[in-house]
Amino acid sequence: MKRVRSPSNATAPSLGTVLPFYDAPGPIVPIRADLDRIFRVTVCLRPFRSAGPRQDVERVGDKIIVHNYGHGGSGWSLSWGSADVVIRRALEARPGLNECAVVGCGALGLTAALTSQRMGIRTTIYSKERPPYVRSSRATGSWTPDSRVALASGVAPDFGAAWEKMARISFGMYQSYLGSPGTPIEWTDRYWLRDEDDPRPYGDSHGFVHYGDRIADLTPHSQEMPSGSTPFPTRHVRRSTTLTFNVASYTRALVQEFQVGGGSIETREFHTPADLTQLPQSTVIDCTGYGARSLWSDDSLVPIRGQIAWLIPQEGANYGIMYKDLYVLARRDGIVIQPLPQGDDTGWDDSNEQPDRTEAEQGVRTLQELYSRMGANLQSR
What burial letters (b/e) apply to 22-33, b meaning 16+ CB within 10 Å? Predict the structure, then answer.
């Protein structure tokens, strides 16, 4: 497809412009929102279960299977805490466990394998695909531990407490990766921009759980910025600071750590639960994500489609924006742009993994509009 360069705009900030931002750790660097800077468009299917992640234990032949899938949009965010849950359940089900298999090499598989390894268990990962080809590598990359993780009407009474424990364990582990080579994890700012006094209702007709208040002590509280204190042109600007996952470098760090610790990754595909009985290990941690729907005939899994357009990363641009139903996160491994026209309802029960270039370009145009408004806003001051 021929790529079209976005038209120039006299009121947009010029390339290299540094926009002043008062009461902030640094200036805002405008993102170069040109259509020809889209270097790929990817789709990820989030594996959602109304009851929350599946973490139960079952037997298949002589194997003990511990499930670890169905985290919705919270896979990366809850991965370490979820791994702690399932590895401990494996140890309870098989006392004296010294060797296990992990099926899946995405966010849940890698962290489960490392957690197992750190507990002194020899661990092998079996997977059809490896990063960067797994669905987890196409994630947006933000700390969102309760993003479409369950339905309020579907969870057990104790799920909120279990979720909080997973979130806190995960958050604590992420702090150990801050400052690592390649910047796999870092703190960055987010800006919610809107013109109206009262925000439009955010799409959520399904009634997803919201547990942010349970862990409000972990991250700085969001704050409404004083009028005129930012270069953003909207009437309201709310700023928060949270964790960003630079997924490419973070995944490489996890794989390297696992292999340096003696772990191995083998390419293998599983079509039925009976295929797992061919593995030499007696205990299997099942981290197959949306693939579990087919493998286990699990109709409780609902796909939530998420498409992101990737813009070439920019030095100095590492912040997030929510503007007119468009989510933007400038990461070191690419600037991801995700339209959310129906809020959390966007992509519900849509298993189409084919990229939509038209949707991607529309997202970039919305970002162009924002920066054009910013340029006009600065000129009028």
Answer: eeeeeebbbbbb
> Can you give the pLDDT at residue 201?
60
Residue type, 242: T
Residue 340 in any domain: the answer is: yes
Helices (H), 176-217: none
Count of beta carbons in the 10 Å neighbourhood of residue 322: 17
Assess whether pLDDT exceeds 80 at residue 11.
no
Q: Which residues contact 86 (CB under 8 A, 6 or more apart)?
A: 55, 66, 67, 68, 112, 285
Secondary structure E strands in 253-349: 264-267, 283-286, 302-311, 320-323, 326-331, 334-339
Measured over the CA atoms of residue 153, residue 155, residue 157 and residue 163, the dihedral's sign is negative
Q: Which domain holds residue 81?
A: 35-379
Let me know if residue 272 belongs to a domain.
yes
Q: Which DSSP string do the residues of 332-350 spell out, in sequence order? A: TTEEEEEE-TTGGGTTBT-
27 within a domain of the structure (yes/no): no
pLDDT tens digits, one per residue of 131-149:
999 999 999 999 999 999 9
Report, as an integer, the average pLDDT of 21-40.
80
Nearest 5°: CA angle at 185, between 356 and 190?
A: 65
Task: At 260, list the tokens.
Answer: 């340096």
Q: What is the mean pLDDT of residues 198-212?
A: 83
Please say whether the beta carbons of 37 and 368 come within 8 A. no
Report how many domains make up the chain.
1
**Model pTM score:** 0.91
Q: How far apart (Å, rounded) are the C-alpha atoms in residues 232 and 243?
A: 22
The rounded percent of the chain whose pLDDT value lies above 90 is: 87
Pick the closest to residue 142 from 209, 240, 215, 224 (CA basis): 240
pLDDT, tens digit (0-9, with 9 covering 90-100), for 39-94? 999 999 999 999 999 999 999 999 999 999 999 999 999 999 999 999 999 999 99
Q: What angle do CA 163, 167, 170 make, to 5 degrees?
A: 140
Tell me the two tokens of residue 227: 């009028």
Handedness of CA 341, 342, 344, 345 (dihedral sign): negative
Q: What are phi and psi of 44, to 5 degrees?
A: -125, 135
- Alpha helices, DSSP H only, in 100-243? 107-118, 159-175
Q: Does a structural domain hold residue 313?
A: yes
